[in-house]
Structures are given as C-alpha cells and as structure tokens.
Amino acid sequence: DDASPAFLVQPDSSGTYINSKLEYFVDTSETMTFDEARSHADFVSAGGRNVLARVRHPIWFRLKLERGADAPARWWLDYQIFSPVELQFYSPDQNGQYIKQASKKYEPFSAHPSYGRPFFYPITFNDQQSMVIYWRSVSHSAFIFPVRIWQQEKWIDLTLTEYLLYGLLLGIMFGLSVYNLFIYLRIRDSMFLLYFFAIVSYMFYSVNINGLDLNILWSTSFHRFKGLSSCITATTGIFSVLFAISLLGNLKRRKWFSYTLYGVVAIYLSAIGLVFAGQYSWAELLTQWAGGVWLPLVLGMSAYLSYLGSVWARCYLIGEGPTLVGSTLLVLLTQGVIEADRFNTTFYFVAGAWSAIMFSQALAEKVNSLKKAATAALNMAVTEKTARLKEAAQYQISLEEKVKQRTKELSLEILLHQQTLEQLRESQSKLEEMAYSDVLTGLPNRRMFQDRLLQAYTRAQRQDSPFALALIDLDHFKRINDSLGHGVGDQLLQIVAQRLNAALRHSDTVARLGGDEFAMILTAPISRDDAISICQRLLSSFDAPLLIENHQVQTGMSIGLAWFPDDGRDMDELIGSADVALYQAKAAGRHRLSYIGHVTGSNLHQ
Ligand SMILES: Nc1nc2c(ncn2[C@@H]2O[C@H](COP(=O)(O)OP(=O)(O)OP(=O)(O)O)[C@@H](O)[C@H]2O)c(=O)[nH]1
C-alpha cells in the first residue's frame, strides 16, 4: 500500500483530475464485501485513464490522499461519469472508521448534496494528514470515470456555468419541440409529432449520458430501474429513426432505405425487450450497434438527397452531422480508444440542440417545398383549365361558324333545289305544252283539239246551244313545198295559223291537226250565219298571194263546216260531217267553204 502513489491535495487543487493516482480491480465474483475488497492485494493503477472498455463486473477503486500545507480540510469528489448504474462510496471518519455513502442516483433531486449532482461526495480531513478512500461502481458496459477534486465554491461556480449552458441547450430543444408539437396539432402531419418525440427523448438521453441526472428535468424523483439508460437510448433511437424515415424516406422510390431503418427500429425495440428480460449488457450493446447502423445510413442518404438539390435534406445533414461526431466520440470512448473530457461529455448537448434547430428548419423547408409543389400543381391546373376553356370557346366559335357556313350552304342548296324544282316544273309544263301543242305554229295539236272539242260539246249540250266545227286543209300545199322548199312551206303554215287565230274570238279554238290540216271550234253561242261569215272572211284573206322570202306565194284553203247538233249528235258524227263537207269543198274545186247541203267558193279557184 505504501508504495502506491498518493494525490497531494494543495490549496489550488480544486478542479484537478485525479485519475493518475487512481487504482482499481474488477470484482469478477460480484459478491465482495468492503472489508474483503479493502484487503485485496491486486489493485492496479488506472494510469491516468478514465475509461474501462467492456467491463460488466463491479469495480473497486482506491485513492490515497495527502493533505498539503495550508490545504483546506474539506473537499468534494466529483464523479463526472455517465455510465455507472450504482456507486458506493467509503471514506473514514475522524476515528478512522469507514462510512458508506450510497449513490444519490435513486434519490430525489432535492436530496442530492449539491445542485443535483448524483455522484458528488464530501471528503473531510479531520486530524489526519492522509487518508485512503474506496468506492465500488457498477456499470452495464463500458465504464467511464473522470474524477476530480473540488472546493465547493469553485465547483458551484463551474456547475452554475455548466448548468446555464445545459439549461440553454435544453431550453432550445424543449422550446422547438413544443413549437413543432403545436404545428403537429394544427396540421396533423406526423413528421412534426415524430420531431417532438425525437427531440424530447434526446433531451433525456443527453442528460442521462452526461452524468447529470434525469431529475434535472423534473425536481421530484424519477422511477429509476436497471436498464433505464438502455431504454432511453433505444427510445431516442426509435423516434430519431422514425423522424428520419418521415423526412428522408420515400417508400415509392427508395424502399430499401425505409425498410432498413424500420429494421433498426426493430433492433431498438428488441433492446428494450432485453432490458425487461434482465439482459442489461446485451441491451446496451444492441443500442450501440443500432446507432452505428442508422446514423451513417441516414447521413449518407441526406448527403445524397442534398446533392440532388433537396434543401431540407441539407438541413438534416447539417443538423445530424454533429450527432454523428458525438456518437463516434461515444463509441471511441466506450471502446477505450479516447479518454473522457469536458468536450466529449458535453458535445451531445450541443449536438442535440443544434440538430433540434436544423431539423426544425428541415421541416420548414420540406413544408415549404411541398407548398411550392402544391402551388405549382394548382397553377398548372388553372393554366390547363384556362387553356381548355379557351379551346372549348374557340371550338364553339368555330362550330358556330361552321353551322353558319353550313346553313348558308344549305340555304343555297335549297335555293338551287327550288330553282331546279322550278326549272323542272317549267320544263314539265313545257313538255305538257309540247304534248298538247304544235311545235311549228304554237297552236293546240290534235290531242288538245279533241279535249276542246269535248269541252265545247259538253257545254253545248248543257246549255243546249249550238256550236260549229270547221276542218281546214290547204290546197296543193305539196306543190309549194316541192317548188319553194319546206322552209317556205313552214312559214306559210305559220302565217295561216296566225290568220286563223286572228279571225276567231278568245273563247274559240284553232288547232293544227297535222300537215296542212287545221280545225276551228266556234264555241256556243254562235249562229249559223256568223260561222259562215267567219269562214268566208278567212277564205277571202287568202285571195291575194303572200310574200314569203321574196316569193309570191298563192295559196288557198278548203273548209268543211258542220254544226252541232244539226250535223252530228255526237263528236264522231260531227267530225264525220265536217270531213264530208271538206271533201265536198275539195271536190268542188278547192278554196271554198262547204257544209252539209251547200258548197260556196271563191271566184279565184273556181
Ligand atoms: N313544209 C311542210 N310541209 C308539210 C308539213 N306537213 C305535211 N307537209 C306536206 O304537205 C303536203 C300535204 O299534201 P296533201 O294534203 O297530200 O296534198 P296537197 O298538195 O295539199 O293537195 P290537196 O290537199 O289535194 O289540195 C305533203 O307534201 C306533205 O309532205 C309541214 O309541217 N311542213
């Protein structure tokens, strides 16, 4: 024992690390009493180190203190560690009897000796100039034990400064998480709720691993149990991972990313399960591994997304980066690669507050980008709708124009149709006319003559008044034709027709029966003498020669006259009588009028 070095306590020793003078041994039996441990021969020097990697058994520490001249009698030992589950402290009283002090970790905040610090023990040099103190620590995994000796005033000064910093950092985290909780309550986007839980659990996580006590968050006692640290770590991990999924995950495009992270959540859940199964060390180990998986993965993804231009991924990257540094520090610490110091035991707080700020910013950016996308989509929809409406309006206009055009065309067509119809009617009436009239003279033809004769007959019968029928044949027309040509013959026929027409009343009928044969119906009422005189006048009008195409054309005509009802009771009889009379006129020497029982002639042709 004497060979072991002692820590010389000087007036200015306050705040000095004493790890270089610490000695320890691991109680693998886990059942050693204080007296057994005190007489244990194999204490080894910590050699200035403050980390023991992968130690799961209780560790007994021994520290020899020597009081220097002018050094105060009362000091405090600050066990600035964040891993012990439990600690028992042994220091001698003035009689040299050892007094045991339990760790204050399971007591209310108010019962802690100084400002809530759970591992803070008074050391009092009574009359002694030197003393040996012992403590027993239990940890579930790595054991980290930076130990300092303090004068209370100086320690309080430092603590107040530290608490101010912690309070500020915790305040930032708490404020932002409550702020985002309100946003969640307003817009019900689970991202904000996950943010709230991630940051709040992180607050617990950081006070827990920092060596502060959970009671700093709440003045009355928390229910502490073995494995609580693992549960806090796992819970923080779960919410952090879920938040990362909601912010960076995209189940449509990068399924593997979200699925891997859900796998990490499952690992954290099983760590909590292991705690309740009493497997504290395994639970601790699992939570450390899980962090090693998802932190680099999430950082890689956010780096990739920010490379693609995502602003919120960049915010996340910047926010989570320090946490990765912090967790790397933690891994290095627990593996005994680096020693604990003020920086790496406080780093988590700063990283946490920083990520709270940046994650909140990431959420704002994401919401902003979603809003922008929504606005863009809305604008596009409006533009498209306007275009459609315009198109529809144009279509309607063109439709109206088409309808107008078509209506125009149709009315034109109708007009054309009407014209065609009119033409048809005209040509039909022309055809009809042609069917009933003679082309050369324009006089009614034989068919019409028969109709008219029937009319005259019917009327005469009804009115019981006589009418006359005259059959007319040109004399020696053949000769004219043969000597002067058909043209002259035609013209002669036309002249005869005009004269016949002129000789009669409007109600009478002149028809060309064919060749040089004409007929006249002198409708009722007409007297015998009137009929005879009309015929005589007609005959006389042909007494003088006609001038046709510089030819003196001399022609005559024979007329056979018959009366209804005297010369025929029906039409056939009447025509027969007229025919007979005509024959008589011809036979009597032509150019004369004949009727039944009488033939008169013109002197010229006799
Ligand atoms: N130019 C002309 N000649 C016609 C037309 N229709 C008939 N003819 C001719 O008229 C003549 C009629 O002759 P007929 O009635 O037989 O005898 P005609 O010469 O008049 O002698 P008569 O009747 O005995 O006095 C024929 O030579 C026919 O070719 C016609 O439309 N135009």
UniProtKB/TrEMBL annotation:
Domain of life: Bacteria
Pfam families cross-referenced by the UniProt entry: 7TMR-DISM_7TM (PF07695), 7TMR-DISMED2 (PF07696), GGDEF (PF00990)
Keyword presence, RNA-binding: no
MF term (GO), any: diguanylate cyclase activity
Lineage summary: Bacteria, Pseudomonadati, Pseudomonadota, Betaproteobacteria, Neisseriales
Family matches, as SMART domains: GGDEF
Gene: adrA
Keywords, alphabetical: Membrane, Nucleotidyltransferase, Signal, Transferase, Transmembrane, Transmembrane helix
Limits of the GGDEF domain: 465-598
Name listed for the protein in its UniProt record: Diguanylate cyclase (GGDEF)-like protein
InterPro entries attached to this UniProt entry: 7TMR_DISM_rcpt_extracell_dom1, 7TMR_DISM_rcpt_extracell_dom2, DGC-Regulatory_Protein, GGDEF_dom, Nucleotide_cyclase, Rev_trsase/Diguanyl_cyclase
